[in-house]
Amino acid sequence: MGVPTLGCTCRVCTSPDPRDRRTRPSIAVAWAGHRVLIDTGPDFRMQALREGIDHVDAVLYTHSHADHVLGLDDLRPLSFKHKSKIPLYADDDAANVIERIFDYTFDPNSRYPTRARVEMHRLGPSVEIEGAVFHRVPLTHGRIEVAGFRFGNAAYLTDMNDIPAGSLALLKNLDVVILDALRKTPHSSHATLEQAVGFVDRMQPRRAFFTHMSHDLLHAETNNELPEHIQLAYDGLRIPFEI
To answer: How open is the CA angle 87-93-98, to the nearest 5 degrees?
Structure first.
């Protein structure tokens, strides 16, 4: 829902700390002049303006929930100057939903002249984009399976409350992991702060950053409770890693 949350006057929603202002989660992975997005949420336009994103080589989707896909249409101006259609990658179920939501974009019979120049691809175990390999990491998000991604020595694991045993094998020797930590109290489809720390302990990365926090977690206060190698992420954070 983002923070501040509409209609809320709690101490996090009214915090003067800019790190407590949270747009919907996504990341941009950049290397050697290339850029791949993971998810385009409803805040994508403002995020891209803030970070100076002027081109995108591809977009990977974790799943089809609104807070991860509804900014797809804002790819339009970036796609107009792309050398070909921007490739999008999603699991079959997610791709079907996205194509239905944005039927005016994907329908081959669409007459909308300035629709985004994008092309949907079904996601396999991995995809290579401009020399970088992105490995799909299956995650449990309540009753559905969603996609996390490993790229180089980093991984992005948003919207999950469990990591299947088979996926842990894909998450060894990480320098950086970014993962879901919604709040302290239990949730049916998101990791709690305590569960997220437990996942980090199992993966043993050098650094970990928590994302998808609700307005239950105050940035500075929560950071002080975490081990030194774990921090809350914040909008605009840049994390160096090797791809």
So the answer is: 50
Q: How many CA atoms lie within 13 A of 209 on its CB side?
A: 17
**Buried-state track 209-228, b at ≥16 Cβ within 10 A, e below 16:** bbbbbbbebbbeebeeebee
Q: How far apart are the first and last CA of the chain?
A: 31
- pTM beyond 0.90: the answer is yes
Report the SS3 class of residue 192.
strand
Instruction: Return the H-helix or E-strand segment holding 216.
Output: none
**HSE (CB half, 13 Å, CA atoms) of 222?**
28
Say which residue the tokens 């303006």 belong to.
49
Q: Residues 23, 235: contact at Cβ < 8 Å?
A: yes
Residues 98-139 have pLDDT tens digits of 999 999 999 998 888 899 999 999 999 999 999 999 999 999
Residue labelled with tokens 């500075």:
220
